[in-house]
Design brief:
38% of the residues lie in helices and 12% in strands. It contains ten helices and six strands, in the order αβαβαβαβααααββαα.
Length: 267
């Protein structure tokens, strides 16, 4: 049991090893007086990754706003069972419900029929979940940055835990008081198994997924993120930008990704 407890602590520490955007809410976010235009009729809802916050969008939000988009974001997933009530550590079903409710609030207060979603890491996975729950009547486009769609192996750590027979004990510790979301996001979890029973994508929603081949957080890179279904565009970052150098935690601030997402949502 001691080994399982250690492994249960290593899981979230690996996730927390990526940069966290602990900065104030960007000025371009959450202007509840913003009204979508005829040219840009859908507000954009930005969904940060695990242990991150609205500061992750400090570069993307102003760019989208300058192009005429109404831009909104929330912080989600605090859970009283977890140490420090870290953003995104709550069970994924709880976080998905928070995000769906926020998206509905955005629709109602802006008068928009549909929203677009942009999610990073855990936020990408949850954007997929929310798009399925709300459907094409309420979601137009979902841009997912390195989501662990099929369940991450955390660079092989999950495989090692399984081979050692420690998954049940490690999962118990994670769910009890460390990081329920971490248990939900790994390969083979009940949440992932149910999510990836085809069809995965919501009919009528346009999906674009960007992933890096060398990602060790959402791993194996690319394969764990992509959805091979109609209506989904899968893009390996290294194929579009051969110079590479992508880091999982800073994808939302990468200048190449910023330009690409902005153009995708405002063309």
């Amino acid at each position: 049991m001691r080994a399982a407890r250690l492994l249960a602590l290593v899981f979230p520490l690996m996730v927390l090893g990526v940069p966290v955007s602990a900065v104030a809410e960007p000025a371009a976010l959450n202007d509840w007086h913003c009204r979508p235009s005829a040219e840009q009729p859908r507000p954009v809802v930005l969904v940060h990754g695990i242990a991150d916050g609205v500061g992750a969008w400090r570069d993307l939000a102003p760019r989208l706003a300058e192009r005429g988009r109404c831009v909104f974001a929330l912080e989600y997933g605090k859970d009283p069972r977890t140490f420090g009530q870290v953003n995104g550590f709550a069970p994924l079903a709880q976080s998905a419900a928070e995000i769906a409710a926020f998206a509905e609030q955005v629709r109602e207060r802006t008068g928009a029929a549909r929203v677009d979603l942009v999610g990073h890491s855990e936020g990408g996975l949850l954007s997929l979940v929310v798009s399925r729950e709300l459907g094409a009547e309420k979601v137009g486009t979902a841009v997912l940055l390195a989501p662990p769609t099929h369940g991450t192996t955390l660079g092989g750590l999950v495989t090692a835990v399984d081979e050692a027979g420690l998954r049940p004990a490690a999962e118990y510790v994670l769910r009890a008081n460390v990081c329920p979301a971490c248990a939900d996001m790994v390969r083979g979890s009940r949440f992932i198994t149910e999510l990836t029973a085809p069809p995965i994508a919501a009919p009528g929603v346009r999906y674009t997924i960007l992933a890096s081949a060398h990602d060790q957080v959402s791993s194996p890179g690319g394969m764990v993120s992509f959805i091979e279904e109609p209506g989904v565009v899968n893009l390996l970052a290294e194929n579009r930008w051969p110079d590479g150098g992508f880091a999982h935690g800073t994808l939302p601030q990468d200048p190449r990704v910023l330009t690409w997402v902005t153009d995708l949502l405002t063309r």
